[in-house]
């Protein structure tokens, strides 16, 4: 059976994710919460520009209607 989108997000709880926003901004952080509207809460969040951390935010909430994609991050 195919995985549902929220199942994939649930498996990423307490792990590093990359959140890409509709306007092109990218945030990386540890996913500590989400809801059915794709509102997400990240801990240790960083704004990413050109693949490099630009600014640290700590804990943030990203409103779901701004989210284009959420991707698990492979830790090297």
UniProtKB/TrEMBL annotation:
Protein family (similarity comment): Belongs to the snRNP Sm proteins family.
Alphabetized SUPFAM superfamilies for the sequence: Sm-like ribonucleoproteins
Domain (Sm) ranges: 4-76
PANTHER family xref list: SMALL NUCLEAR RIBONUCLEOPROTEIN F, SMALL NUCLEAR RIBONUCLEOPROTEIN F SNRNP-F
Keyword Ribonucleoprotein recorded: yes
GO biological process: mRNA splicing, via spliceosome
GO-annotated molecular function: RNA binding
Protein name, entry field: Putative snRNP Sm-like protein
GO cellular component: ribonucleoprotein complex
């Amino acid at each position: 059976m195919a995985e549902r989108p929220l199942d994939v997000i649930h498996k990423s709880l307490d792990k590093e994710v990359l959140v890409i926003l509709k306007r092109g901004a990218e945030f990386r952080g540890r996913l500590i919460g989400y809801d059915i509207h794709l509102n997400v809460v990240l801990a240790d969040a960083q704004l990413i520009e050109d693949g490099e951390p630009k600014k640290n935010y700590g804990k943030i909430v990203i409103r779901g209607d701004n989210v284009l994609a959420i991707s698990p991050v492979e830790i090297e």
